[in-house]
Write a structure and sequence with these properties.
- By secondary structure, the chain is α/β, with parallel strands linked by helices.
- It has helices at about 10-15, 35-40, 45-50, 80-85, 95-130, 150-165, 200-205, 315-320, 320-325, 370-380, 410-420, 435-440, and strands at about 65-70, 140, 185-190, 195, 210-215, 220, 225, 230-235, 240, 245, 250-255, 265-270, 275-280, 290, 300-305, 330-335, 355-360, 385-390, 425-430, 455.
- The protein is elongated and about 75 Å long.
Length: about 450
């Protein structure tokens, strides 16, 4: 049965007949296919198929839509309140009724969970047979882990694998296998099990792929290599021995959460990178991350958490300074969760000659502001400094304006004062006394003007 057949009855009740609605002429249907496809590309797949009931003009348009978004969230059966909880129960039977209702509710959840999945699976399989996804520009498959059965990610992987095996870019060639290249430029997958052959298949059929996003996927992939990718987003993925990401064309790289095999070092070689986002728990990436020097990076966000737990041994915790050196050409830099160990034990110097905006979030500055002073001394054109929820040092009462760099030469102090003279600073804090934080910060340099320091208190 075709997907649109399920919706045809509904169309008769809506007053849409032969391309003309009860409200007047159907001007939307008079638009060319390319414009209608653009409109349909902003819809979810189920909504796209439902457009087939509008008129004969729309009946087959969905088959050639360039963007397909198959989303499990579109399939949700909810129980009527009267079916789960009976409000007419007497007060005498309240406890028994509550217990029965709770069990009824759990039973309903179990039934609807698998009913939703069956509906979703039937729809997805039929749709992927009816649409030739080799002709798509964009394909997204979104499975919700909390609502899918335990085997859901494996089943979804099977759909994708069969599509890559049998779909061809030429509609006239449906028989047998084809090694022809797909048009696909964007591929987004959520909660799909991906084996080590997945990217080999992608590389062989998706030669023009520019945007790959994997969200909450279980990945047995050891290497991500591409000569066409421009954007790579990896969110909350569980990796087994991911050892390298290599792409000379990659412009944007996001690794947000997830985990990797303990002893595995992740090597990133992306010389054209312009935006880097690394957010990870150091205990879940114990092998660390090795990044080549990225001269073209304009904006970088490094968010490491878990380093304050001394029981956690992780290579990435000790490689913080190496990461900073690799992105020293950034014009915008955001560091979150960086500890006092970022500079190591010995003296450090690394010039951030292009840095204009620096944001330190939840950064430990209790080391007499040494980490902050390092950035101020290393950033000659810094214009804006933002300190968000940072840990300030605790000083005893000293003479106002006393600099903290007692072991620093007077020439270095003078240079730091010159750098701070026109610097704009914003302190975002949730607790404490704002003016006191300003007094503490001005110990870094007497030339930090109060007028250039903004206080923002948040709940």
């Amino acid at each position: 049965m075709e997907p649109e057949d399920a919706f045809r009855k509904r169309a008769r009740a809506s007053g849409v007949v032969g391309g003309t609605s009860a409200g007047g002429p159907d001007r939307l249907s008079s638009l060319p296919d390319c414009l209608l496809h653009t409109i349909m590309s902003s819809l979810k797949a189920r909504q796209v198929v439902q457009t087939s009931v509008l008129s004969t003009r729309w009946r087959h348009l969905w088959r050639s839509v360039p963007c397909l978004d198959i989303d499990f969230d579109e399939f949700s059966n909810t129980a009527p309140a009267s079916d789960v909880f009976d409000s007419n129960e007497s007060d005498d039977d309240t406890s028994d009724s509550d217990s029965d209702n709770w069990h009824n509710h759990k039973d309903w959840e179990h039934v609807t969970k698998y009913k939703d999945w069956e509906d979703f699976e039937d729809f997805a399989v039929t749709l992927m047979r009816s649409c030739n996804i080799a002709q798509l520009d964009s394909f997204r498959l979104h499975v919700v882990q909390s609502r899918a059965p335990e085997f859901g990610n494996r089943v979804a992987a099977g759909w994708l694998r069969r599509a890559m095996k049998y779909c061809t870019p030429d509609r006239a060639s449906y028989q047998g296998l084809s090694s022809g290249s797909w048009r696909l430029k964007r591929l987004h997958l959520c909660h799909v099990l991906l084996d080590n052959n997945f990217l080999k298949r992608v590389s062989s059929v998706c030669c023009s792929l520019e945007d790959l996003e994997l969200d909450d996927c279980s990945c047995q992939i050891q290497s991500i290599t591409s000569h066409s990718l421009k954007t790579l987003v990896l969110k909350k993925c569980r990796w087994r021995n991911l050892s390298e990401i290599i792409s000379p064309t990659l412009k944007t790289l996001v690794i947000d959460g997830g985990s990797n095999t303990d002893a595995c070092v992740l090597v990133i070689l992306a010389p054209a990178l312009a935006y880097l986002h690394l957010a990870m728990h150091i205990a879940l990436f114990r092998g660390g991350v090795s990044l080549n020097v990225v001269p073209s990076v304009a904006k970088a966000l490094i968010h490491l958490w878990g380093h304050r737990h001394r029981s956690v041994r992780s290579k990435i915790g000790g490689d913080q300074f190496k990461l900073l050196c690799c992105i020293s050409n950034s014009t915008n830099l955001e560091l979150s969760g960086v500890g006092t160990t970022v500079l190591g034990k010995g003296p450090r110097f690394q010039e951030f000659k292009n840095l204009r905006n620096l944001l330190l979030d939840k950064t430990d500055l209790s080391d007499d502001f040494k980490t902050l002073v390092f950035f101020l001394q290393s950033s000659p054109i810094l214009e804006k400094l933002t300190l968000r929820h940072c840990l300030f040092p605790e000083y005893s009462n000293k003479k106002k304006g006393t600099p903290i760099l007692n072991k620093t030469s007077s020439s270095e102090l003078h240079g730091l004062d010159l750098l701070c003279e026109n610097l704009k600073v914003e302190i975002i804090y949730g607790y404490g006394y704002g003016p006191h934080l300003i007094r503490l910060l001005r110990r870094v340099s007497v030339n930090l003007s109060k007028n250039n320091i903004k206080l923002t208190k948040v709940n």
